[in-house]
Amino acid sequence: QSYCHRLQHDMYFLTSTSRLNEQVVDKIVLQLNRVYPQILTNEEAEKFRNPKASLHTRLSDLLKHLQKKGDRHCQEFYRALQINAEQLFNDLPSRKILKTSDPTEIDTDKEQYMLNDRGPVFFLACFSVAAGLALFWYCCSSETKVIGRARRILGFSPIIIRRHVRNICMLYLEDISRN
């Protein structure tokens, strides 16, 4: 998007009440007058710094004048605005469009919501299913010796699995291995 189109898009935002004060507008006009190549001539700078005209009128005239001059002049205006009113520059509607127009950029607020949408119960359920599938795959694998490894695993867990549950599991595993 060209700077002239961006400036046309931002014009209402910039000229609305109390966005830019008189000192900032004067600094921008002076910078445009002094920058190389000179964007505003001395006469034009005097016209846009005239205290007899209202700030809204001077700013509107300045923006229209820059749009007529071309893209380079509008680009220098944005540079001057960034230097003299950085917070306002960051809040411009065209800047917000440019920030969100990148399709590869992740919207962190939306991503955070999507990641935190489910609670800890969902995590525990998924973890339990994954652990159950892993244990099932491990026990049903024909390449491994199930009884010996299962006996070792269950034999070292009397604190977690009570003695009678452990005995039932051992009997069940031995019964499966015989068949």
Automatic annotation (TrEMBL):
Domain annotation CARD: ranges: 38-96
Q: PROSITE patterns, alphabetically?
A: CARD
Q: What is its main location?
A: endoplasmic reticulum
Asked if the keyword Lyase belongs to this entry, the reply reads no
On whether Plastid is a keyword of this UniProt record, the answer is: no
Q: Where in the cell is it found?
A: Endoplasmic reticulum membrane; Mitochondrion membrane
Return the GO cellular component terms, semicolon-separated: endoplasmic reticulum membrane; mitochondrial membrane
Keywords for this protein: Disulfide bond, Endoplasmic reticulum, Membrane, Mitochondrion, Transmembrane, Transmembrane helix
Tell me the superkingdom of the source: Eukaryota
Which GO biological process entries does UniProt record here?
regulation of apoptotic process
How does the protein associate with the membrane?
Answer: Single-pass membrane protein
Give TM regions: 120-138
Q: How does it assemble?
A: Associates with BCL10 by CARD-CARD interaction.
Protein's recorded name: Caspase recruitment domain-containing protein 19
The organism encoding this protein is Climacteris rufus
